[in-house]
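Board notes (copied after class):
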Amino acid sequence: MEVTPEGNESSRDAKTLISFYSNYLSNRFTSLFPSFPSNFLEKISNLYRQTLLPISTKRRAGLPLPLPSNSVNLTRTASEASRIYEVLNDIMDRFILNLHKIQENLQFWQSIAEGSNARKVYFMIFERGPRAFVNGSVQLMREAVIDGSAMQNLSHSSSVYISERIAVLSSLRCSLAAFLAQFYVEVDKCGKELAEDPEKSFSSLMHTLNGLFSKLDASIGHLHALRQNDSSIEGTYSFPLLFETLPEISQEESQWTNSEIKEAINLVCTNLQALDSYLALMVAKHQKPSNVTRYWIRYTCGAVGLSVCSFWLLRHSRLMGSSDIDIWIREAKESTVSFFNDHVEQPLLAIRDELLDTFKKRQKGVMDMEEVKLTSDSLHRMLLAFSEQTKGEAFPENASDQEMLEIVMLRYEKELVHPIQNLLHGELARALLIQVQKLKLDIEMAMLELDQILRANEINFAILAALPAFFLSLGLIVAVRAWFRQDTKAEGRGRIARIQRRLLIVEIEKTIMQYQAYFDQGLENDAQCMFGLLIYCLDRLYHAVRRHAKATGEWQCLKQDIIDLGRPGLQTSYKLSVTARMERVYDCLLPSLKRQ
């Protein structure tokens, strides 16, 4: 269930890493050249923070802060008020983005942990790169020779390897979620004051943030105790997370000055950059392997196969004096043209001619209606003459052929009593010739009907000839459509994306109930963690349904329901009723089978 929040995460990670290592290099440079003026490096550092690490001026499309709706208009009137809203939005955005990166890696390690022991061993040997493959194979063979318990030892080491990363990432997630929950609740409490007079309420909010950063520093500091002596994590945890605290500004003053507000905002931005730097390094040490690392065997086989194929093509190319490739290209071109003519052009032309010139340009059929009429009239005259001669009376011209044929058959039966005599002197030969004429008429009528059936299905035969090209085009269209829509993510338009959005609703319901359970048990820290994860899930849902709900005109109602789910003061029963209504009412969250 992946919903990637918007924002330039890669550039943010690069900037945080540059900031961390630039501080390290500056300290080393100062230790090597103690006589060099230190304020020079400080000026460069300040310049970097002002240019590369500004406050985000444009929010991504995520869950908004719990502020009154008229606060958006107030940000346009005062520059300091605008900066206050920007820094508050920046705090929420950065924590949600960091939570997403942690959650993405945590879900991977949890999926590996839930697998069988064989799956864990396979991951340890084959999905951690060539070096891990060699080391794991050597260890496996060595332990198999020594004590015969190689699989058990490798399974145990893989469990330790995975559980260590799950523990660190879970602790990071809980700490960030608790901070996000407390920050969201504080903004909700002073939302009205922030909308009316941001500068006046900013002082109390900043002192609250100061305490929240201190708690975050203390909670993340426990990660040092999680590391074991034989830890599989490369590197150390020696780099500390140190937040700068707010200066001692008199809280008795009703309102801070612009310089004090600017200084507090700069301190918050500095703390956010320090947190980003710390989390970037911590997540990098505990992150899941990249796709190249996990599937390095496939990529290696592909590279080898590509090399062999390239060498084979080189041998048959003009560079080696061979004309095989030119011949193959010419044959492929001729085959393509022939396929196009036989299965695309000619069938379409046949369909066009059949639709436009149905009865004008057809070839002459096997049997015409005039021939059948001549045979029918000849049979009628033969029957009429035979009947008049046999009965000795005149028959009307419109006499039924069936009645006269009965007379012929009765006379035929009598003549068969003495066949040889009647064949020479009787009417037996004449009756036989009349029956031959009747058989000829029946055959001609059958051929005429068959010809009509063939003519009527000429367009069907042309369509059948075009079916291979049609199915080939349909397959290409479906493949291109699936590639463009990317239904595997919750923002997509297909059935899988719709399932992902409904699973987000399920996750929100579970988080709400888990939060209420922790709250009833008096577990405040766990409840805050669950509420922070609820805000994170709501942000993912907000981002996933925004475009679809706007297209169907449901966005305003759905947006308000999502915001209500994040309200700290609303009852759990009301929130669960809201989630049930969302699954039942909104088109972008309905199951695929119920959409008509």
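Comment from the instructor: Residues 150-189 form the longest helix (40 residues). Residues 1-17, 29-57, 72-77, 359-363 have pLDDT under 50 and may be disordered.
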